[in-house]
Write a sequence for this structure.
């Protein structure tokens, strides 16, 4: 792909995760205002994040299957439109309804979540289709950086919109969807000939074969993405309340403070994508190091919570997330053939959404038991995930099969080691003459 054309294509593709991430991150600075306006509990206000993310996580595998069968753009464009429509429903509910505003807003958020299922994960698969070799790592790093940039901009943007009114954030979604849909449709030319016409049963069997061969690496990678985003959104949810009650920050100042960890994450994601290229072993150890850095930063917050150390620690956690996610994106997309990439990346995206969904309520629950327990328990989760990545992500599993025979070949039988004498000397059955 020519440099100028690839820049336009990447710009169009980057708009998809940028828009998708606004769905949660832009609401975080106005959650206290929503809580006050609708007289909600801390748990009920966290459902505005959770009921966006859970439907997305459930629908994403279906969106991945449809993208493999009918094309990526034919899934992404309608999904973006549904995403914008959910914002209209939530915004109008806040304006027109009174006692029923909260459940109607939740309904709009569910619609947005269903739409979000067909956005960023499918855009990631399409990026994997369009770019190969060293370009793929760089392109996926830019896609993750766009995701991070959305997280940086969205708290500030949400705080600015909140100055108008708390429901202005919902009505902003359809305004930004339109240019992204047009850019994707007219600038991105999807590769032809990589759609598959298998039956659903055959397709699922081929996916099962991928997991037979690479289950340890794929499941560990899925867990790593979920844990990184669970912690990120849990910390942001905690910060939204903490910055007002402890540091007395409101409005744009609060949005700027919320943007600090994701600014470090976005910058690190971009730089990581530039350096990993096809260095498979480096990707593995950056994942391990990134998760370990997240765990170390959270442990430090549990011990020391002075203002400077607090912001240093959340910045380090952002750097750790920026090291982890681009490498996991590249590992997932590079280890799967094009014909199966849509569903596999969508399963990964679904697990990531589940991490986002669980983060706010989990941190909200743990806050009731004290901040040290909240930070140390999530630090332990990051540490355990780093150890699993060190032992279960293997370089040889990161390469995609390149021929139909490799794609459909069953996993080879590997005899399990026996115990006792049989472990020392294999037994061979005698032939007929030996009986």
């Amino acid at each position: 792909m020519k440099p100028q054309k690839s820049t336009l294509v990447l710009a169009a593709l980057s708009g998809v995760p940028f828009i998708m991430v606004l769905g949660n991150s832009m609401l975080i600075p106005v959650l206290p205002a929503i809580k006050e306006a609708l007289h909600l509990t801390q748990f009920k206000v966290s459902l505005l994040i959770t009921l966006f993310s859970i439907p997305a996580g459930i629908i994403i595998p279906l969106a991945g299957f449809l993208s493999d069968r009918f094309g990526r753009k034919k899934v992404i464009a309608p999904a973006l439109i549904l995403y914008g429509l959910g914002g209209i429903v939530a915004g109008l509910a806040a304006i027109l309804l009174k006692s029923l505003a909260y459940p109607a807003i939740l309904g709009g958020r569910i619609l947005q979540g269903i739409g979000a299922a067909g956005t960023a994960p499918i855009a990631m698969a399409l990026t994997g289709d369009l770019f190969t070799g060293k370009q793929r790592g760089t392109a996926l790093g830019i896609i993750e950086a766009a995701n991070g940039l959305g997280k940086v901009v969205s708290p500030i943007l949400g705080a600015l919109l909140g100055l108008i009114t708390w429901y202005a954030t919902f009505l902003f979604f359809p305004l930004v969807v339109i240019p992204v849909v047009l850019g994707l449709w007219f600038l991105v030319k999807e590769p032809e000939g990589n759609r598959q016409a298998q039956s659903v049963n055959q397709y699922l069997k081929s996916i099962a074969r991928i997991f037979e061969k690479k289950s340890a690496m794929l499941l560990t990678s899925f867990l790593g993405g979920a844990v990184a985003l669970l912690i990120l959104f849990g910390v942001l949810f905690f910060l939204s309340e903490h910055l007002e009650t402890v540091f007395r920050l409101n409005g744009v100042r609060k949005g700027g403070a919320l943007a600090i960890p994701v600014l470090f994450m976005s910058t690190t994601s971009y730089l990581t994508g530039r350096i990993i290229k096809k260095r498979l072993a480096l990707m593995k150890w950056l994942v391990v190091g990134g998760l370990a850095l997240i765990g170390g930063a959270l442990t430090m917050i549990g011990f020391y919570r002075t203002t400077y150390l607090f912001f240093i620690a959340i910045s380090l956690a952002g750097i750790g997330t920026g090291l982890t996610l681009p490498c996991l994106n590249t590992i997932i997309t590079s280890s799967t053939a094009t014909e199966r990439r849509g569903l596999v990346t969508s399963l990964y995206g679904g697990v990531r959404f589940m991490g986002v969904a669980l983060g706010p309520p989990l941190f909200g629950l743990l806050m009731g038991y004290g901040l040290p327990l909240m930070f140390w328990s999530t630090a332990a989760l990051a540490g355990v995930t780093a150890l699993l990545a060190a032992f279960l992500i293997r370089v040889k599993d990161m390469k995609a099969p390149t021929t139909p025979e490799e794609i459909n070949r069953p996993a080879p039988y590997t005899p399990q080691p026996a115990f006792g004498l049989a472990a020392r000397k294999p037994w061979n059955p005698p032939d007929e003459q030996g009986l």
